[in-house]
Amino acid sequence: MEAAAEPGNLAGVQHIILILSGKGGVGKSTVCTELALALRHAGKKVGILDVDLCGPSIPRMLRAQGKAVHQCNGGWVPVFADQEQSISLMSVGFLLEQPDEAVVWRGPKKNALIKQFVSDVAWGQLDYLVVDTPPGTSDEHMAAVEALRPYRPLGALVVTTPQAVSVGDVRRELTFCRKTGLRVMGVVENMSGFTCPHCAECTSVFSRGGGEELARLAGVPFLGSVPLDPALTRSLEEGRDFIQEFPNSPAFPALAAIAQKILDATPAQAS
Amino acid sequence: MEEVPHDCPGADSAQAGRGASCQGCPNQRLCASGAGATPDPAIEEIKEKMKTVKHKILVLSGKGGVGKSTFSAHLAHGLAEDENTQVALLDIDICGPSIPKIMGLEGEQYVDENLGVMSVGFLLSSPDDAVIWRGPKKNGMIKQFLRDVDWGEVDYLIVDTPPGTSDEHLSVVQYLTAARIDGAVIITTPQEVSLQDVRKEISFCRKVKLPVIGVVENMSGFICPNCKKESQIFPPTTGGAAAMCQDLKLPLLGRVPLDPHIGKSCDQGQSFLAEAPDSPATVAYRSIIQRIQEFCNLHQSKEENLISS
């Protein structure tokens, strides 16, 4: 019988989802941010834990860069992305003295900080904690999975782009999930085609078909394809709410559908 | 939060593991045992091995998915087009080794007589095998690649790296410093979310005194194959690589546009330069490769002048 998780700073968090890839630059942070915004629009309280220590992208995507982390009795107070405090964040990005400061750490030091992010951040009551990860299958991933294991994460969303070079890396990430006992909720194919704003011709800029093929090979659900939309990129650059501002974007229906599948896959009663 | 250069006394200092700021550092016991004091003998061994390697170039980014492996592969292809130039391509992305696929290799290590490749990808038996290793084990593999591979007479050794500023990057710089690295080529895409990480990589290069040959802006504009008009898929909201290079006083080696054929060539393991010789992307690549060669040759003659004077 599994020992119950010690009550700690994650005691009030209902569901934990990890966003993984294996491949860099496929849009993990983008999908993480958009999923958090979509869940917020569905009335949920969401936290984002950014364990990409070398390349922390989350603060900027929610216009929270430069904010400071404060201490309270329960530990570190997460940074809120909005006045209503419906999205809380934690990232090494908030702990840097200069934005261009490089976190040049070897594995053990990275592991230690990730453990702290899990145990020492006073997350409070959250419906979802979404965990953004760096590419790869190394220290950060092992540390995050180990630290979160007692809290029984819902699973992992695996992001790829269509081309074989991405799929090649992401297959290895799926093996990582299998080996560490992390359930794969599904595969998201990002950057699936670009519609020319001048003539509306759709080009497969990064090849095609990889996401579905990967899901099929691995026997996991295919959650959807998100097309390239410079408006989405621009929103993330400027820390704006894409979901609110661009409901007519070609990327919106795909992102909304993915969020809905996550909501549907969430068990109704949390222990 | 402790910053490594400020509070950490240094793994090889007399205070290693014993200083006040060492309390709580996961490496404390290792440092206190004196393990950091003696230099790794492998560094000298690698220096010896590297005597037959004329130029060493690291391809770095900080950001994932900007095209480091694509660029490394095509830099290798471009240099190797001259059959008198011996080129070696080393892939130290241990978790995500893309080079074998991009070079069209599945075990053989020579693409051409004058172009050899080494990657952990060759050591994996299945495409689903995951290399789930912590830092120290990855470092060991990199040491092996540099020390135990018989590189032979090589004009250019190109090292493809994973994204980030961590074990792999520290190790490759540490192991190759005695052997002298010509410099690093930094790859980025135009948008701020990439530049943000790339600036950190450049800080890393400055910290470890690694010369930066220059920056390449990849995925810089897309020409629609239908109407031929240009769009910015990854908008340079903060001025792109050009603004960053001006700020940091680094050369912008060139800008490579997005050509859907690049992705296809990589998927098929073909040289895009050979498959699409007239593409504006190929023209950009060739110009960048030339500038890199000029940098290396200039470096070499400066060194030779120093030695002979």
From TrEMBL, chain A:
Q: What is this protein called?
A: Cytosolic Fe-S cluster assembly factor NUBP2
Required cofactor(s): [4Fe-4S] cluster
Q: Does the keyword Metal-binding apply?
A: yes
Where does the chain bind ATP? G22, K23, G24, G25, V26, G27, K28, S29
Subunit details for this protein? Heterotetramer of 2 NUBP1 and 2 NUBP2 chains. Interacts with KIFC1. Interacts with NUBP1.
Magnesium keyword on record: no
- Pfam families referenced in this protein's UniProt entry, alphabetically: ParA (PF10609)
Q: Which family does it belong to?
A: Belongs to the Mrp/NBP35 ATP-binding proteins family. NUBP2/CFD1 subfamily.
Q: Which UniProt keywords apply?
A: 4Fe-4S, ATP-binding, Cytoplasm, Cytoskeleton, Iron, Iron-sulfur, Metal-binding, Nucleotide-binding, Nucleus
Query: What is the organism field in this record?
Result: Propithecus coquereli
GO function terms (MF aspect):
4 iron, 4 sulfur cluster binding; ATP binding; ATP-dependent FeS chaperone activity; metal ion binding
Q: Which GO terms describe its cellular component?
A: axoneme; centriole; cytosol; nucleoplasm; spindle pole centrosome
GO biological process entries: iron-sulfur cluster assembly
Q: Which SUPFAM superfamilies match?
A: P-loop containing nucleoside triphosphate hydrolases (SSF52540)
**Which amino acid positions bind [4Fe-4S] cluster, per UniProt?**
C196, C199
Where does it primarily localize? cytoplasm
Q: Which HAMAP family does the record match to this protein?
A: Mrp_NBP35 (MF_02040), NUBP2 (MF_03039)
Its job: Component of the cytosolic iron-sulfur (Fe/S) protein assembly (CIA) machinery. Required for maturation of extramitochondrial Fe-S proteins. The NUBP1-NUBP2 heterotetramer forms a Fe-S scaffold complex, mediating the de novo assembly of an Fe-S cluster and its transfer to target apoproteins. Negatively regulates cilium formation and structure.
Automatic annotation (TrEMBL), chain B:
Keyword GTP-binding, does the record have it?
no
- Compartments reported by the entry: Cytoplasm; Nucleus
Annotated residues for binding of [4Fe-4S] cluster 1: C8, C22, C25, C31
PROSITE patterns under this entry?
Answer: MRP
Query: Which GO cellular component terms are attached?
Result: cytosol; nucleus
Q: Kinase as a keyword?
A: no
- Needed co-factor(s): [4Fe-4S] cluster
What Gene3D superfamilies does the database record attribute to this sequence? P-loop containing nucleotide triphosphate hydrolases
Identify the residues that bind ATP: G62, K63, G64, G65, V66, G67, K68, S69
Q: Pfam families given for it?
A: ParA (PF10609)
Q: GO MF annotations for this entry?
A: 4 iron, 4 sulfur cluster binding; ATP binding; ATP-dependent FeS chaperone activity; metal ion binding
Q: What remark does the entry make about the cofactor?
A: Binds 4 [4Fe-4S] clusters per heterotetramer. Contains two stable clusters in the N-termini of NUBP1 and two labile, bridging clusters between subunits of the NUBP1-NUBP2 heterotetramer.
Keywords associated with the record? 4Fe-4S, ATP-binding, Cytoplasm, Iron, Iron-sulfur, Metal-binding, Nucleotide-binding
Q: Which SUPFAM superfamilies match?
A: P-loop containing nucleoside triphosphate hydrolases
Which residues of this UniProt protein bind [4Fe-4S] cluster 2? C224, C227
| Biological process, per Gene Ontology | iron-sulfur cluster assembly
Complexes and interactors = Heterotetramer of 2 NUBP1 and 2 NUBP2 chains. Interacts with KIFC1.
As for family, the record states: Belongs to the Mrp/NBP35 ATP-binding proteins family. NUBP1/NBP35 subfamily.
Q: Which purpose does this protein serve, as stated in its record?
A: Component of the cytosolic iron-sulfur (Fe/S) protein assembly (CIA) machinery. Required for maturation of extramitochondrial Fe-S proteins. The NUBP1-NUBP2 heterotetramer forms a Fe-S scaffold complex, mediating the de novo assembly of an Fe-S cluster and its transfer to target apoproteins. Implicated in the regulation of centrosome duplication. Negatively regulates cilium formation and structure.
What HAMAP family would the database entry show? Answer: Mrp_NBP35 (MF_02040), NUBP1 (MF_03038)
What name does UniProt use for this protein?
A: Cytosolic Fe-S cluster assembly factor NUBP1
Q: Which organism is it from?
A: Propithecus coquereli
